[in-house]
Every structure is written in C-alpha cells, then in structure tokens.
Design brief:
Blueprint: H1 3-13, E1 33-39, E2 44-51, E3 59-66, H2 74-88, E4 93-102, H3 116-119, E5 124-128, H4 140-147, H5 155-169, H6 172-189, H7 195-202, H8 210-243, H9 248-255, H10 259-266, H11 275-286
Parallel strand pairs: 3-4, 4-5
Antiparallel strand pairs: 1-2, 2-3
Length: 287
C-alpha cells in the first residue's frame, strides 16, 4: 500500500491539513500551496513542500515526509535536502520547518542522537498517527489520515463511519473530495477487490473518479515493474550460471531492458555460445 501517495493526494485536496497537526501553525496557513520542488547540483526532488504565498513577505517553508517504513537514514536525507533547498532559496524564505508523519514510534529511525538539536527543538515536528486519539473523536480530515493506519479488519467499518460523517459535516465540494480520498484509501488497502466489491464493502456507489483510476493504474504499473525486475534478475542468474561472472556493464544493460525485450532475451539464452554473442545482441537491440 502506497500510503505516501494517499497523503500527498490528501495534501493536494486540502493543504491546510498539515497545519492541523501542528501546535503553532502559521497565521496564513490557508494561503499555503502544496507542491514538489527540485534542487539542482546535486539534483534531487522533494515531494512534500508547503510554500507560503509569493506576494507576502518572506515566509516559512514547510517540508513534509510521510514515512510508513523503517529508514535508518531518513533524518540524514530530510535535513540535508531541506537545508540545501532553503540555502538555494534563502531570499524567498525567512525560516524552514519539517513535519515527519509516522504511523507509530516503532517506525522512527533508531539512532537519532546525531540530530538531537533538530529533534529536541521546535523546528522539526514528529507526528505519530496512532497517538492522535480515537478516529471517531478527531477532526474529519485528520481522521481520514488515521484511517490509513487502522487494522485491516476495522478499516471498512471506520471508513463507513467517516463516509456518513462526511455527508453530515462537509459542504458539497469538500464532501466529494473527502469521499474520494476515503474510497481511494480502501482501494489501496484492498487492492485485490474489484470496484463492485469495494462499493459493497462501503455501501456506496463509486464513480470512476480520476483519483480512483490513478490508484488502480499505479497498482498495475507497480506490478508490471516488479515483473520486469524479477525477469531481469532471473536472466542474469541464468547467464551467470552458463558463462560465469557477467561484466557489470552488461548486467546494467540487461536490467534496464523493457519487459518485451527481456522476454525475447529469455527465449534466446541457449542460442548464445559466449558473452560476446550476448553483447552483440544487446548492442543490436539498443542501437
């Protein structure tokens, strides 16, 4: 389940949601824009950035990281990227803050000592979703975030509750956005189910919404990429068994091939008598 994709869609729908998690949000929170930014030399991209309005005096830029898997160098990366982006755009911003969203404390990086100054100050905010409280007592948008963390057997019941609450509390445009996000979360949690099965689970009729289609297509793309990588690994192992160690440049060419070429290559493995034959085939296909 790609929870980070869900959260970034949530932030696109409602950028102010991030600031509902903070004790001291900026006074102009409603004017912030959620975006991703790129930094050149060295090149990298930061997916979750909340930018203050450009027509205001230099404001605070907020970096957001959604982390549902253990990463023992998360803080090294987040602080390095945030600091470099702030350095590159110093004239535009007066300060920077970072918000790290975890499902629970157990997912947090183990060794935090090198970052104690950041983590013990007021510049970095760590949010643990399982500590925000009962999903039924939280503000609606925050409750939707927590829905991504509830146990699978509880998810349908809590989703139906949030759908009912949304219809009662939210205005029409906001209601549509929240319903779309809730159904997207359930579609992620139960990827094996068809659209009709998801409709039955939630007791609603789904439209073929843009987000719903994106999630399903993303799942198919991830499946195809996993198949391609697995096929490439099998071919490299078979070639190694046949010819011995394969040069790294040849291995790289194989692992970068599209699935159709890998399938073609797999059918020709017994026809090659040497690595040179393999290299000639690769060069002919690539060129």
């Amino acid at each position: 389940m790609r929870r980070d994709s869900i959260f970034y869609k949530l932030f696109q729908q409602s950028p102010t949601l991030l600031f509902e998690l903070l004790t001291n949000p900026p006074t102009n929170a409603c004017e912030y824009k959620f975006d991703s930014v790129a930094v050149k030399e060295p090149k990298f991209e930061i997916d979750g950035v909340f930018l203050p309005p450009e027509n205001a005096s230099p404001g605070i830029v907020y970096f957001c990281e959604v982390q549902f898997q253990k990463d023992e160098k998360l803080y090294e990366r987040v602080f390095a990227e945030s600091s470099l982006y702030f350095y590159r755009n110093r004239d535009r911003f007066s300060d920077w803050q970072a918000v790290i969203i975890y499902p629970s404390r157990s997912i947090e990086q183990s060794d935090t000592h090198p970052h104690r100054t950041f983590l013990n100050g007021n510049q970095v905010h760590r949010v643990y979703l399982d500590e925000l409280g009962d999903i039924r007592s939280l503000p609606l948008w925050v409750a939707v975030m927590v829905l991504t963390t509830v146990e699978e057997e509880q998810a349908p019941c809590e989703a139906r509750y949030l759908l009912s609450r949304t219809r009662q509390e939210a205005s029409a445009p906001v209601s549509s956005a929240i319903i779309e996000i809730i159904t997207t979360i359930i579609a992620y949690r139960f990827e094996q189910l068809s659209r009709r099965e998801v409709e039955s689970m939630l007791d609603i009729t789904l439209k073929e919404t843009r987000v719903y289609r994106e999630i399903k297509e993303e799942g198919r793309e991830e499946g195809r990429e996993e198949t391609r990588e697995a096929t490439a690994n099998i071919i490299v192992r078979l070639l190694t068994k046949r010819f011995g160690e394969i040069p790294q440049d040849v291995r790289s060419l194989i692992t970068d091939l599209p699935l159709t070429m890998l399938e073609e290559l797999g059918g020709l493995l017994l026809d090659f008598t040497s690595v040179a034959d393999l290299q000639a085939w690769l060069q002919a296909r690539i060129n």
